Amino acid sequence: MSTKNPRLSFSRAQGRQPEHKILAIPGPVEVSNNVLEALAQPPLSHVSPDFTRIFQEALSLSRKVVGSQNGQPFVIAGSGTLGWDQVGANLIERGDKVLVLNTGYFGDGFKDCLTSYGAVATILMAPSPGETVPLAAIESTLAGQKYKLITITHVDTSTGVLSDVHDITKVVRRVSPSTLIILDAVCSAGCEDIKMDAWGLDIVLTASQKAIGALPGLSILIASPRAIQTYSSRITPVQGYYASWKKWLPIMEAYVAGKAAYFGTQPVNLVRALTEALKELMKDGEEGLAKRIEAHRKVARRLRAVAAQLGMKSLATQGAEAAGLTAIWVPEGLTASEILQKAGAKGVVFAGGLLADVKDRYIRIGHMGVSVTDEARGDTNRITDVLYSVINELLAEKRMDRATTEI
Amino acid sequence: MSTKNPRLSFSRAQGRQPEHKILAIPGPVEVSNNVLEALAQPPLSHVSPDFTRIFQEALSLSRKVVGSQNGQPFVIAGSGTLGWDQVGANLIERGDKVLVLNTGYFGDGFKDCLTSYGAVATILMAPSPGETVPLAAIESTLAGQKYKLITITHVDTSTGVLSDVHDITKVVRRVSPSTLIILDAVCSAGCEDIKMDAWGLDIVLTASQKAIGALPGLSILIASPRAIQTYSSRITPVQGYYASWKKWLPIMEAYVAGKAAYFGTQPVNLVRALTEALKELMKDGEEGLAKRIEAHRKVARRLRAVAAQLGMKSLATQGAEAAGLTAIWVPEGLTASEILQKAGAKGVVFAGGLLADVKDRYIRIGHMGVSVTDEARGDTNRITDVLYSVINELLAEKRMDRATTEI
């Protein structure tokens, strides 16, 4: 990497890590030195006492990050998508009615997953991209029909739209208290408020590589006692094998109790890095977590202010803007691809659009984890600086082109 | 770790890796410094050109390790078990007849997986633990009934039994040529001969953490054109979601062609380490791979000779002994647990039994990957030395106990 940061050299900013471009995408994100060092330890036996202690801690801390005391944690090798699969395989029986709130691409995906297990899905779409699903629509739909479960994408990674989970849970518990509430928190756990017990969530599923601050490759899911009860009392057998709680529940219960057990070999290095990341996340308890969430919001506000100066509007409407991810429309005349390319050359990696029909019309900037919480790294300044200079340079180039053409 | 190796200090033996116990279990195994360093790089974007090149190389090399030119590789976040799940979800339609060859615990598991997808399984058990399934039994079973697929566990990790895959494929192709041949090569790819194309295998599935020499967390599967054809022409939809080739096939095809694509976030660090491991494995082409396999056999023979001197017999009958794993009965009067504990204290990790009813009657010693191929590490000498001294010390202790009791 030849690009130099005018304020902070890479080696100072990134500590013991080799020089590299800053990942400012909605995951994987930058990880701390401690997390990377935990990852890089020689592998442990998956049934050794050392690993058992580490895994037990990961399970226990996973619960805390989402505000659960007694939820049953599952940490399994797989991408975040495996969390959807666990819901489909273990909670759905063919013909079950489910209500899917859709605020972007990941609502489509969750629906797709559940229907592949025989669910009959009703979709409530946000009125337009960037908006949330109105509470009134949720209420009237729930009132008109009994649903086994409702799914909420906390932050849709394709749009940066934040759903108000607390408000939604209040509606569900009032209008249809037996409906299980499933939260896709892949892009929110660690950077948005989640009070699993207090709000009555039944499933919170997430992944390791976003605001949790570890590396990709782990599906993390917490199930309420009610969700486990629903699984235990199913009439038809669990569908599938790898996602089956019939296999994993005894394993996870064993490790929670500090005992090793075997179904599939745990990804020991990824788990070790996850435990380190969760320890960092929870080192000052709930209060510390709340501060971290606030730090994410602050960075998000600052980034949106810079974007606004550049004439770039958020996809997410006001009040529905995520703390860990900003999706912004590119200025008239520019494309996402040229912005990404120029930013990459300056040492910062942004992401393009994920909504197929406006893919090149917006960019997504991830601001999660150590980039936000470790100010000494200077990542967030660098991200805003690069956005600022890239857009200005590109606009200037276009003006120059136009001027040349006009001459 | 306070234990000192008399011949070779840990730091010299393990190079740049921190001091640690040698993993002599059937996976995870010791990994090379290069693999660990590849793992420990800051994460890349899963859709970046850099990662795309790395992933493309992993896919291409995975094929080569199992002797396939045109097979379709799948590398997906998950444990080795996910390979079974891919077979069940994509190749099984309810009511399909399958023939499962059982040489241990993993035969039971594969059957369990396939029947969970609606397969009707016929099991051919090895006559007793340590033996392989007789070819005559396979032949007569295939002659009497048409099976959609047959599964072979190349090396059963619970028993160390090596099946003669080449001989079995000859029988299948002669007696029932339309039956798909599925090879579970989790404990064999990289340390046993596998000629996917030449032998007419339809699926070879393995995992990253054994003789491949990388870290746990990746399911690696190669499908023949005929297997892909069977999947494409299924009448009922694919079962499940996370294991579905409907989702993953376009993704893998894209990366094979050097283009990024998204279904779930790839575990970028694990993939990077896998690519490094596969490069080491294939650096001298097929000839180099053959030499590595021979090196594993040599170590296995030497270890079995030491075990024989100690009066410890292999579970596997002669000719059915794996190259990367030795399962041996413990001497009369000793238990697996006490052997494991004493070996651990001397800095070497062995594994206990996996067959429930003789769990404490035998131990398993893994000898795969860099421990075998990098002689300068001194791992295999250390493994045999520790086995030798542990058994002798325990036997001496027992004699002393007896003498004391008799006095």
> Tell me, what is the CATH class of the largest domain in chain A?
Alpha Beta
Structural class of chain A: alpha/beta
Distance between the termini of chain A: 38 Å
Mean pLDDT of chain A: 94
Strand order of the largest sheet of chain A: 2-10-9-8-5-3-4
Sketch the topology of chain A as an H/E string, one letter per element: HEHHEHEHEHEEEHEHEEHHHHEHEEEHH
Helix content of chain A: 40-55%
Major β-sheet annotation of chain A:
7 strands, mixed
Modified residues (N6-(pyridoxal phosphate)lysine) (chains A, B): 210
Cofactor (chains A, B): pyridoxal 5'-phosphate
EC number (chains A, B): 2.6.1.44
GO molecular function, one term (chains A, B): alanine-glyoxylate transaminase activity
